[in-house]
Amino acid sequence: MLTRTIRPRLPLLLTALLAPLAALADTPPATQGEGALQLIGETARISVGYARGGHFQGELMGVLHEGSDSAWLGEGWFSQSAGGLQLSYHRSVNDEVRKYFIALDQNQKHDRKLTVGTGLEQADWFGNLYLSHGLSGKRLLEQASISTVTEQAGNVAGRPYLDTVTTTTTTKLFERAYEYGLGLRVGHYFADNGLRITSGFDYEWGRQDARQSSLSVAAEKFFIGTPHSIALQLEHSRKTGAAEIKRNDNRAVLSYRYSFGKPNSQPERLYRMVAETRPVAAPKVIPARTEHKLVKTTASMRSDAFFLLGSTTLTDVARSELDKVAALLKNGGREGNIHIVGHTCDLGSDAVNMKLSIKRAEAVREYLLANGAVPADVVVLEGKGEREPKYPAEAATREKNRRVELEFVSVLEKDEEITVPAQTLLAEEAPLSYRREVVEQEPVWLRLALRTPATHKRTVDVYRSKEETRTESRSRSWTNRAPQAVADSYDVLAGSTTAFAVLGNDVDPDSGDTLKLVSVSAPSQGQVSLDGNRLVYQAPAAFNGEVAFSYTVEDSHGATATGNVTVRIGAGQSGPNRAPQAGNDNATTGRNQPVDIAVLANDSDADGDALTLTVATPAHGSAQVQGNQVRYTPATDFVGEDSFSYTVSDGRGGQTSATVRVLVLSSANAAPMARDDSYSVSGVFPRFIAVMENDSDPDGDTTDIVSLTQPVGGSGTVSISGKNIYFVPAHTFLQDTFTYTISDGKGGLSTATVTLIDP
């Protein structure tokens, strides 16, 4: 009996697809990512922050140019009127990224500083060092002055004086940015947590030993796979310096940041799908032959949909294909085990996909067992998850990878001899398949380092400095000395009236003082009266003998002296006639303005004779006798000094001459105007009184206080201090007064009264 034995081996490929058009897509994607996402830095970022103290700040950062091993970055920030700019250049050298930057920052008061620095970043740490220099000058904050008044006594040529010395100390307080600064930043990026921590130290210094030390820490949390991150920066600083008020400061800024531009993360592993074909053998010619042959046949099944996404339930199409396989197993012989392998697509985790692939293989086994196609002990199950994809993992072809492969050997025995004719075996069409190839990526930390700028202390802090200046002013008041009244004696006739020029021999030790008669005592015989600066004595008609009385003379500052006068009264002329005494005179007038000069005011006759007056002609004007005065009229437009002489005669042959000098000014001087004042003062604390604020001079001349009197009620003492009067109280009081006199420096004087009230 001729027996033909056929032993076919039939592999079964079960593939499940999601989309019916997936079979049309044969082109794999360029790359595929796998594993956790990792941060590679931002190419553009905008942030908004809230700073301690209640103000907001914004920030914009971007990569200006980026290459494989270098990058240019720009940054800008602003908060109210403060802000700054930073330009950075980063370059990769060996296993590190070197960083260089320059920054210009400004505070709200427009103080500026320039910062330059360099840094280094490696896989495990980063750091940078920088120097800063203040660009702004000092700014005046406030100014205060304190004045102290002291008195110094002395004398010049025997004349005592008292200087009032006012010392004014002016203190100015300035503010300016620190001239120099040194900063350091170090930190670490915790990739597992997406957290970048930076710590820093800054030391800044300026003039007058001004110093500031600052400690800072910054943390930024990245939500990897999203454009969002948040940052918190804390800083504590301490200042030293003689002018500082607030020495400690704490700052905090909380920011939200949003990145845009290129992606800021990449997958842990990157693959690409590579198409490949197996080589095809050349056509083979087999000659005709007779042989006994055992034929092994391998069959495979394909279907458009076996399993849906995440499912282990057989589809109707899959059941139909498995029914054909079951019929083949029942009707034919079988050799060896049945191998069933389950697969999944790349969606889902590895652990889930592995379990899912095994359950799909079990579903095929249970279906075959239920149909009685195979015994349970010959089925071998295996699950491979997503590890052996047949097609690219993209939307168009991904569902083909959700499949189950089934393979077994079926044996049909028939003993026969067959004649095999000669045949030529053509090469099969080369099958096309894909494999995953790992794409090499640069280290994640490298791109992150190239895109992350080095940080520095942006705040432009300032320090305070003080400058003190002292100025001293003096006002001198001469101590007034009392005049000296020299005793006088006269001979007169009984019943006569005689004028005595008693001031003719009186003197004042202080040059410039003028004397005047202020009082005269009553004589024992006769009568005496004041007539300007003369005493007029009327002798009794029936008396012969000596009469004595006194008079009081006063200088320009109120000092007085008493002189004695002795009058010898005779019945007739007693002795020879004595010539009168004439004193020189001075006068001042303005251009083209006449002036009356009382030339006899300082003349006298010892015999009491009446005097007559004659004048000579001046060189630059005219002079005329007007009663007891001389009227001088300057020549037209004459300015300068002129003089003339006059002669007095007593009518009995006695005569004397004197000279009058007249100073003609370009304009006539008008006396200043001192006005009365009233002030509320303390009976406890000293005070400067600006009495001249309401005083004036018609000619616009500069006026000064030349004298004053002490308060009449004894409430305290007053002294001249420049244009002011310095009042030192002795005790509390109700009201008191004193007077002061001002001068225009041209002979014009004016006196006013000051009323003090202690409220």
From TrEMBL:
It comes from the Bacteria. InterPro entries: Bact_OuterMem_StrucFunc (IPR050330), OMP_bac (IPR006664), OmpA-like (IPR006665), OmpA-like_sf (IPR036737). One of its GO terms (cellular component) is cell outer membrane. PROSITE patterns: OMPA_2. It holds the Pfam family Big_9. Keywords: Cell outer membrane, Membrane, Signal. Residues 1-25 form the signal peptide. SUPFAM superfamilies: OmpA-like (SSF103088). Residues 294-412 form the OmpA-like domain. Residues 570-591 are annotated as: Disordered. Gene3D superfamilies: 2.60.40.2810, 2.60.40.3440, OmpA-like domain. It is found in: Cell outer membrane. PANTHER family: LIPOPROTEIN YIAD-RELATED, STATOR ELEMENT OF FLAGELLAR MOTOR COMPLEX. This is Tandem-95 repeat protein. It comes from Chitinimonas arctica.
